[in-house]
Amino acid sequence: MGRVAIMIFGFLLYLLPNLAMAELRVGFYNSTCPRAEAIISGVVQNRFKADRSITAAFLRMHFHDCFVRGCDASILIDSTPKKQSEKSAGPNLTVRGFEIIDEAKKALEAACPSTVSCADIITVATRDSVSLAGGPTYDIPTGRRDGMVSTPSDVNLPGPSFTVPQALQAFKSKGFTLTEMVVLLGGHTVGVAHCGFFQDRLSNFQGTRLPDPSMDPALVSQLNKTCGSGTGGVDPTAFLDQGTSFIVDNQFYSQVLKKRGILQIDQELGLDKSSTGIVSRLAADNAEFQRSFARAMVKMGNVQVLTGNAGEIRKNCRVFNNQRQ
Asked: Would the annotation count 212 as a binding residue?
């Protein structure tokens, strides 16, 4: 192969990921399923009226999907006796909201069979739930295809006890900057954490038999009561944002600055010199947080997407079309 041919071949390989990304576009279903986003929105709105916690559920589902094999709905596949899926991995055992995706998919299949991907349903449903909870309203490009692999061993997500450098390594591997990581972790403005994820901060932090000194003593006392209330193997939960627990706003960052971050990684954002300035800026300006969160969510929805002829459009979001499990 000549030098020029090699250069052209290499250039084409470089372009392939960008060409795939270009296939995502706002209004992708305008001609093939014009009411697609309206159908998803209707399902989400009805569920939100009955349960405002679905915003946190969708944010978590979307993150856990996109940070494994990309935004391909691989998290939706059910395990079978013969083959386990991502759902069986430890970090995904408390992911919820799958039945809402099922409801939207059923309605979409009735309106436009085999047209709208499960991956797009997750992304649009997350966007709509964020808006309903007081967060930003933004356009999201669609056109994702569904993946055909779902394996628990692929699930390797940043943990609740990570330091900022450890978490940043995981986010950088997906193309995110430090600022974008801090913004996306602001999704903890809604939702809860099981006591098991932060129990060590309350009484035996790093083997000291003392609470984490970076946590507000009043919060330690409050959480000890909450976490001590579990009986019969139940692991109680606490709101990640103790202020506006169901609203997507910048109060999460204000809580962190007051040493009221529940998860260690959340509090680390306010302690690490690389991120504390970002936290302070976002805590002081809700409008800036809203804009930044919208941009970061759009970018996350673009991570390693399948487009064109890659993957498939599942008929049932829980099962591969060819039943290959």
From this structure: no
Fold entry, domain 164-299 = Peroxidase; domain 2 (1.10.420)
Q: What is the mean pLDDT of the chain?
A: 92
- Right CATH for 3-154 from 3.40.50.1580, 3.65.10.10, 3.40.50.300, 1.10.520.10: 1.10.520.10
Q: Which residues pair with 319 in a beta bridge?
A: 316
Query: What pLDDT, in 10s, does the model give residues 23-41?
Result: 899 999 999 999 999 999 9
pLDDT, averaged in runs of 10, over the chain (325 residues): 43 42 86 98 98 98 97 97 94 96 98 98 98 97 97 94 96 97 98 93 87 95 87 86 95 97 97 98 98 98 96 97 68
189 is in an annotated binding site: yes
Kindly name the residue from 47, 60, 64, 87 that is annotated as catalytic: 64
Q: Is 194 a catalytic residue?
A: no
With beta carbons less than 8 A apart as the criterion, state whether 283 and 226 touch: no
Beta strands (DSSP E) in the chain are 192-194, 237-239
Angle, to 10 degrees, between the axis of helix 36-50 and the axis of helix 98-111? 150
